[in-house]
Amino acid sequence: MEPAYFECKFRDNVRKKTDEHLTIPLTEEALRILDKYKNKATKDGHVFDVISAQKLNDAVKEAAKAAGLNRIITEVYYIGTERKEVANEFCDIISNHDARRTFVSCSLAMGIPPETVMKCTGHKNYETMKPYIETATETVILEMEKWNKNQYRSKIMNLLDDVDEEFMKNLLSDLQIRLAKVN
């Protein structure tokens, strides 16, 4: 790859909260987007205009509306013992901070180690990152399937405890043939 490409691959940011440099590696898709707009850089050298957090949130809400992200989100909270419920369309309450939370949740669900995620987000420890973690129902279902797979494996092993060596050799041969067909 060209050296200029590598120059764009990592971007140093100074975090407002801690005044530290934070280096964030970009995905191939992010790099493609930057490359697409590289000839339209602003006068101060940014690929995109730097806008206020409020304008960014407004743009995110507008994009979410256009994408049809309008499922109802119900927030339940208590004032004293009185239960309150507020229902909003997702596109009305989404913010740019939701992307950060999504990045943390999805990265962990993909098996990326928490230490790596923390390096990207700038969290100092796991406890400060925990509020961002939301395990999606789909992720829970996929992870729980590991129990089923393990139970099948255990049942097979129990069945094989009492068979003779010749049966095991034949079974292994048959299994190898069947797996070769699948792959």
Structure description:
The protein has 183 residues and is an alpha+beta fold. Among the domains are: 1-48, no CATH class; 140-182. The protein is 56% helix and 14% strand. The protein has 9 helices and 4 strands. The chain has helices spanning 3-9, 28-37, 53-66, 90-93, 96-109, 114-121, 126-129, 137-160, 165-182, and strands at 10-14, 21-25, 72-79, 82-89. The strands form 2 sheets. A two-stranded antiparallel ribbon has the order 1-2. It has a two-stranded antiparallel sheet with strand order 3-4. Helix 5 (96-109) runs antiparallel to helix 6. Mean pLDDT is 82; it is low at 1-14.
In short:
The chain is of the alpha+beta class and 183 residues long. The protein is 56% helix and 14% strand. The protein has a two-stranded antiparallel sheet. The protein has a two-stranded antiparallel ribbon with strand order 3-4.
Question: Which features characterize this protein?
Answer:
183 residues; alpha+beta; 14% strand; disordered N terminus
Principal-axis shape? extended
Distance between the termini: 34 Å
**Helix percent band:** 55-70%
Structural class: alpha+beta
- The overall pLDDT average reads 82
Q: Give the number of helices.
A: 9
Uncertain regions spanning at least 5 consecutive residues: 1-14
| Total number of strands | 4
Largest sheet: 2 strands, antiparallel
How big a fraction of the residues is strand?
A: 5-15%
Q: Radius of gyration, rounded? A: 25 Å
From N to C, what is the helix and strand string? Answer: HEEHHEEHHHHHH
Cross-sheet strand order for the largest sheet: 1-2
